[in-house]
Specification:
8 strands, two-stranded parallel sheet
Amino acid sequence: MRGHLNLAPILQHEKQIQPYVLVIDEINRGNISKIFGELITLIEPSKRKGAEEVLEVTLPYSGEAFSVPDNLHIIGTMNTADQSLALMDTALRRRFDFVEMMPKPELFEHKTVKNIDLTELLTTLNKRIEVLYNSEHTLGHAFLFPVYNEQDEDKAFELLKAAFKNKIIPLLEEYFFDDWNKIRLVLGDNQKEAALCFVTKQEDSYESLFGTNHGLNLYEDAKVTFQLASFDGDDSVWDQPEAYIAIYTKG
């Protein structure tokens, strides 16, 4: 949100006890001076209408006195993994309370889709990401909520597959800079049988590729490459519920 806030409807009902809420998504990405303007001071609890240190400003167009009522609540959302957070305005930090909202796999209540436990699935993925990266880059439960809310099991499974294809795998690629070995570890492929692996590992010896006199100054004898299984095709591993179950079960 990069425009000015319109509080006129709220001010017209300021005598009511009913609270009003303004939600500013990705607040750290906006221009704070343009979003709030003079409000950056008026939104402080001690400066609101009815407080001891109430402040008013004169609106430039109407010339009316303006103050912020105490029944207005402003919520700003942000992703703490976002690099732009470091540039966030100090004035904003001082006027807001920061509440950490971590992923909550328990909200899925162990609902199963094709015997895939959504709570166990997200919990396991996030535990591995936390070890290999950090807790601020764990996967939010919002990724799987469409799956949880879908009543038709076949459609829910398609939504799960789509979540991996369009959100989870691309995000893991970004997190680990295409380090497919770590992505493979997050997906538990190192503990699965080959038929259930989303990422396959292949080793090619340099001797088999270039012969004995290749002249390459290398520290290893073989080149390790990884291949992500295709999401398309009738026999895709992404269409096998057992492959998802194997993410959080061993053996």
